[in-house]
């Protein structure tokens, strides 16, 4: 029998461990700050430490693929280890690869990131809908079939995102609203939460995009290094924060390389978020 739906597994994980995702983003500058070389050996040491410190503590870990791809196939092998080891230690793994392509190619990305038995498949993957939400169908279908999830970029945390995402589509809805509505259609009726999430930055302020019908997890990057605070979550999402999953990378990773310092930094974030999200 396959695993339960991702939305249900995520809801259970955040109930047990708190509403936090921590990104594993081995920036060259962070490798340096941890006293590691900017090499695949440094990457591997960084990744192992982050997994050891965080995978038994936080609900979701989000390795950012780019920082592993920088080192070619040996870096990708480290990413594969991170995925396996973090899952083994009890964290859900959201692979941040932001893939998006025409549907027939998207099916191959789906096999890679959402297929049973694929070494790059975690529990969910970030995807880009800017070739049209429908182009993501193979990923959505495979995610639902395998108990995995997708997080679709909707309102990204970077300042350049608004020019595209706030633009009006042919039917006058904002592009981000179209994406939210498409996600809502897939998630309709799922309980406790659908498996198609959205990415909505904690930095975006009040946008007028209505997220109330999404019925899926709302990944909120931007806390810490990008300037957003826990208080900004209410501005962006309103009073019902039950589906919001804040994610931060540098704010926690900057506490390394000590394992207990990293764990403490994550716990501080979880405590602060529990006070607001519950
Ligand atoms: O999909 C993402 O995770 C993402 C979407 C977005 O809109 N903004 C954003 O910052 N991210 C990712 O979230 C992480 C943020 O890292 P910090 O700014 O260090 O917390 C990076 O890995 C980004 O690639």
Automatic annotation (TrEMBL):
GO term, biological process aspect, one: 'de novo' pyrimidine nucleobase biosynthetic process
PROSITE patterns on file: OMPDECASE
Catalytic reactions on record: orotidine 5'-phosphate + H(+) = UMP + CO2
Enzyme nomenclature, EC number: 4.1.1.23
Key word Transport present: no
Protein name (Swiss-Prot/TrEMBL): Orotidine 5'-phosphate decarboxylase
Pathway noted in the entry: Pyrimidine metabolism; UMP biosynthesis via de novo pathway; UMP from orotate: step 2/2
Residue stretches making up the Orotidine 5'-phosphate decarboxylase domain: 19-265
Gene coding for it: pyrF
Source organism of the structure: Nakamurella flavida
């Amino acid at each position: 029998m396959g695993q339960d739906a991702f939305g249900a597994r995520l809801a259970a994980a955040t109930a047990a461990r708190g509403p936090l995702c921590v990104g594993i983003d081995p920036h060259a500058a962070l490798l340096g700050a941890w006293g590691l070389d900017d090499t695949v050996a440094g990457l591997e040491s960084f990744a192992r430490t982050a997994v050891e410190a965080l995978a038994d503590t936080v609900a979701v870990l989000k390795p950012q693929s780019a920082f592993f791809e920088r080192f070619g196939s040996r870096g990708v092998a480290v990413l594969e280890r991170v995925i396996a080891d973090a899952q083994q230690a009890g964290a859900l793994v959201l692979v941040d690869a932001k893939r998006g392509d025409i549907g027939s190619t998207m099916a191959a990305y789906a096999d890679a990131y959402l297929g049973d038995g694929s070494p790059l498949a975690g529990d969910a993957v970030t995807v880009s809908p800017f070739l049209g939400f429908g182009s993501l169908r193979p990923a959505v279908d495979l995610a639902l079939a395998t108990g995995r999830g997708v997080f679709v970029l909707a309102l990204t945390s970077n300042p350049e995102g608004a020019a595209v995402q706030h633009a009006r589509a042919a039917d006058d809805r904002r592009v981000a609203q179209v994406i939210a509505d498409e996600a809502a259609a897939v998630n309709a009726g799922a309980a406790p939460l659908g498996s198609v999430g959205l990415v909505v930055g904690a930095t975006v302020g009040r946008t007028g995009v209505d997220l109330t019908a999404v019925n899926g997890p709302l990944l909120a990057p931007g806390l810490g290094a990008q300037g957003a605070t826990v208080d900004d979550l209410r501005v962006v999402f309103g009073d019902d924060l039950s589906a919001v999953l804040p994610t931060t990378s540098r704010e926690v990773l900057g506490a390394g390389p000590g394992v207990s310092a990293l764990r403490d930094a994550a716990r501080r974030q979880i405590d602060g978020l529990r006070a607001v999200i519950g």
